[in-house]
């Protein structure tokens, strides 16, 4: 237990708890289940991108195009859906 309290991860966890409490105090709707689910879904997408970028960086390469590729894919998919394309076709184009 003593070792756990001095670990670097304990500081990160404490900062996360502090941010959560601050968000709850500043916005009463922050801690509602719908909002937490939405935040979790958005973080999942970024987490998947971060894992891929981590492998690239660990191999000694630097790839800064991940964020712009993600944005281009999301925008093009959204525009195609707005133009009346089916979800499946728009997703196929966005992923291509």
Automatic annotation (TrEMBL):
One of its GO terms (cellular component) is plasma membrane. It is found in: Cell membrane. Pfam families: BPD_transp_2. It comes from the Bacteria. It is a multi-pass membrane protein. Keywords: Cell membrane, Membrane, Transmembrane, Transmembrane helix. GO terms for molecular function: transmembrane transporter activity. The keyword Transmembrane applies. This is ABC transporter permease. It comes from Streptomyces microflavus (Streptomyces lipmanii). The lineage of its organism: Bacteria, Bacillati, Actinomycetota, Actinomycetes, Kitasatosporales.
């Amino acid at each position: 237990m003593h070792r756990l309290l001095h670990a670097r991860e304990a500081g990160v966890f404490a900062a996360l708890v502090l941010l959560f409490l601050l968000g709850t105090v500043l916005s009463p709707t922050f801690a509602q289940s719908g909002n937490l689910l939405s935040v979790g879904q958005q973080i999942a997408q970024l987490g998947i991108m971060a894992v891929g970028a981590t492998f690239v960086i660990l191999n000694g390469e630097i790839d800064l195009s991940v964020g712009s590729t993600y944005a281009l894919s999301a925008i093009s998919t959204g525009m195609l859906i707005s133009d009346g394309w089916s979800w499946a076709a728009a997703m196929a184009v966005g992923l291509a």
